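Fold sample X.
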Amino acid sequence: MTMAKNEANQEIESNQEGLKYDYKVNMNILIPRMTRTLIKSFYEEDPDKRNKLFGKAMKKITKNLVPIRPNRSFPRREPSRKNKYPSNKKRSV
């Protein structure tokens, strides 16, 4: 997964001229796409078809980008501790 991420990010860096933000690969798209591609490639015997599978997956991954916005960090909300074990969520009351 990280090799595919690094390869896609390197390809993206070469095409970022004139854009407002820097972009990176959307990991929510990359992980399921690569797992499906890996599973299909295990069943494929022809190396040329495997390369085509990876090429198609990389094209779709590099199309789904996420901008890197500077100074974007928000604190996480703490969950309420008043009723840690609510009775309506218990299996038997």
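Fold sample Y, listed below.
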Amino acid sequence: MISKEFTPKRTLCKVRLQVPAEWAEKEVAVVGDFNNWDPSSDKLERKNGGWETVLRLKPETETQFRYFIDGERWANDEQADDYIANEFGEKNAVLKIGK
């Protein structure tokens, strides 16, 4: 699940990413162009019966991302705003942050 909430001055958008508990046994990382595709940067926490994290992204941007699960497989979020083909013959999910 993806939810977006702007800060009061609209200088940042807090994007909450949540995936079901059964997606992973050990860990879920969100990787994308916002963290140079580094799987050690942004881990989701076990919380509320699933995995979740909050990213802080700038307004008026598009961000590509994927989930890296248990250090071995990739997945996209079904609620992404769009999908773009990547150089590996798969697709990256896209978050579009408005004004």
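Sample Y note: Residues 29 and 43 are 4 Å apart (CA to CA).
Also: The mean pLDDT is 96.
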